[in-house]
Design a protein that fits this description.
Blueprint (H helix, E strand, L loop, with lengths): L2 H16 L2 H16 L15
Length: about 50
């Protein structure tokens, strides 16, 4: 894909998310929990460490 097509696809996906009230409510709740410190940190697992 060209860089412009990647940007277009990203914009389209962003608009889909932003036009979904249920999903936006979940994102808002997550932002509020994060602001209050309501989260746990987790280590990331590298692909080669899974096996």
């Amino acid at each position: 894909m060209t860089e412009q097509k990647d940007e277009d696809s990203s914009l389209i996906e962003t608009l889909k998310i932003m036009s979904n009230p249920e999903l936006m409510a979940k994102i808002k709740r997550g932002d509020e929990q994060l602001a209050k410190g309501g989260f746990k940190g987790h280590e990331l697992i590298e692909e080669d460490e899974k096996d």
